[in-house]
Design a protein that fits this description.
Rossmann fold; 24 strands; 3 domains; eight-stranded mixed β-sheet; alpha/beta; five-stranded parallel β-sheet; about 475 residues; about 35% helix; elongated; about 20% strand
Length: about 475
């Protein structure tokens, strides 16, 4: 076979050749160029070897029979550090099980192939990977992935969305399993940017309503300025002018027509924690705080230890997002004060219930010889949402706006039920129902998937957990109609 501009040519018996007008249709057509060539964006054979040899991405994972034809590519951008590799395995399992039990219906695309890519937490690297996967406004040399899963971190996710997914005419379907960021610079006319969990606004309502139920009189807040924590802080805080100065306030209900005494301090890195805690403790609230808010990640445990060591008064309530649970659990082993543990409530979207997710956990553990972290459940669900939305696209090319349209319209039904607990008996029927334009219900590995099409996110109840993950209270939300609920 001959090629011109990486497009295959048709040759007749007389040796006369011409470029195939529509370019390649299947990856097997590109095989004469080398094993690393795939049928990529713009129907050109695309060489993936550089991205693979540089360690950006692994070699593509093809369906179980190693078929290179009738496939559609998706790509993931995951930082494999820490739990990242285990989270990525949630994506892997979802793709493997979808390919085993279901299929797409668009002509020429029956199964899903996957490029698994490691961002290493680097924004520039993530952008290069995203452009390798989906192209850019000035380059058609790319894999031509129909969807991106990830990144996990809010700031990296934002950069990929703003500088790749929404640039030019790409409109790439992009879903983060864990990000809460809601605002992006470019417009999203195709409504292709999604979150596989509640965004910052729902998170903020859950936290503020919990505070309002407690009705704190003197409130102390110590927060990290890291991207995710800053996103949540901006959603729970408001700027108000007091005594001629504009300052931040946690936006709880006014007490007797006035905001109660508050002090807010922040830190940019762990070296700044001691100073932030000292400033918080020395703030004049007119009395000891009755509520302490800690907005951080794993370093929240260090903040808590520093607060205790500096003699901070332990209030009846210490409220924090569950992002910091690992650090808090570690810190509590060194803080010899039972009052501290009793005071802590960790707010989080409802976590997977072992009684309802045991089947997924068992399959994951068998496949990967490890127990899935919570985020692996979310990554599995984000992938299932994506793949089954693709299954509802019945003609033309499977592109972002079409995927999003199916997601908005067809994942809020009651039956048939697509269940992460039983892919063998539910995936095929669910994909068929979607292809026929019917509604379905999707019970994921984390929770029942309820799509909020207006906000482009999955919504669920929130729960206040103890540091040892015992449910203290539940924030029930009428999903997807309402963004507020009640404890």
């Amino acid at each position: 076979m001959f090629f011109e501009d990486n497009k295959p040519m048709d040759c007749d018996e007389g040796g006369s050749c011409r470029v195939k007008e529509n370019g390649c249709e299947q990856t097997s057509e590109c095989a004469p160029l080398g094993a690393a060539f795939i049928c990529g964006l713009s129907h050109r054979c695309f060489d993936t070897s550089e991205a693979i040899s540089s360690g950006f991405c692994d070699e593509p994972v093809y369906p179980v029979n190693d078929s290179r034809d009738e496939i559609l590519f998706v790509g993931s951008l995951i930082d494999r550090a820490g739990d990242g590799a285990a989270i990525e395995n949630g994506i892997r399992l979802a793709i493997e099980e979808f390919n085993e039990y279901a299929e797409l219906v668009v002509e020429g695309h029956r199964k899903v192939a996957w490029f698994a890519c490691d961002t290493r937490g680097d924004k520039i690297r993530a952008l290069e990977i995203a452009r390798f996967l989906v192209g850019s406004s000035d380059s058609a040399s790319a894999v031509g992935a129909s969807a991106l899963i990830g990144p996990l971190a809010d700031d990296v996710f934002s950069d990929v969305v703003e500088q790749v997914s929404l640039v030019g005419n790409l409109n790439t379907f992009t879903i983060s399993p864990t990000a809460i960021v809601e605002s992006f610079g470019p417009e999203d006319p195709g409504r292709v940017i999604w979150r596989a969990g509640p965004g910052a606004t729902r998170y903020a309502h859950a936290m503020l309503d919990r505070l309002n139920d407690v009705a704190p009189v003197r409130l102390l807040t110590i927060f990290s300025t890291a991207p995710r924590q800053w996103e949540l802080f901006n959603s729970i805080a408001v700027k108000k002018v007091t005594f001629g100065q504009e300052r931040w306030w946690i936006n709880i209900d006014d007490v007797n027509g006035e905001m109660g005494p508050q002090a807010i301090t922040s830190y940019g890195d762990v070296e700044q924690i001691a100073a932030a805690v000292e400033a918080a403790i020395s703030a004049d609230l007119g009395g000891p705080p009755d509520t302490l808010i800690l907005l951080g990640g794993d370093e929240t445990g260090l903040v808590l230890e520093e607060y205790v060591e500096q003699g901070g008064v332990i209030p009846p309530l210490i409220l924090a997002p569950r992002w910091g649970v690992t650090g808090i659990q570690d810190a509590l082993t060194r803080i010899a004060d039972g009052q501290v543990q009793t005071a802590i409530e960790l707010i989080s979207p409802e976590m997977p219930n072992p009684s309802t997710t045991s089947a997924f956990t068992s399959r994951y553990s068998t496949r990967f010889q490890s127990t899935p972290p919570i985020e692996a459940h979310q990554a599995y669900d984000a992938t299932l949402i994506t793949l089954f939305s693709m299954a509802g696209v019945t003609d033309g090319t499977i592109v972002g706006p079409k995927i999003s349209s199916v997601m908005r319209a067809l994942l809020n039904g009651d039956a048939p039920v697509i269940s992460a607990a039983d892919p063998g008996n539910t995936f095929e029927a669910g994909a068929s129902a979607l292809a026929n334009g019917n509604d379905v219900a999707l019970n994921g590995a984390a929770y029942r998937i309820q799509i909020d099409a207006a906000r482009r996110e999955v919504c669920t109840d929130f729960v206040a957990y103890s540091p040892d993950d015992i449910e203290i209270a539940r924030y029930q939300v009428n999903c997807p109609v309402e963004i507020t609920g009640s404890w």
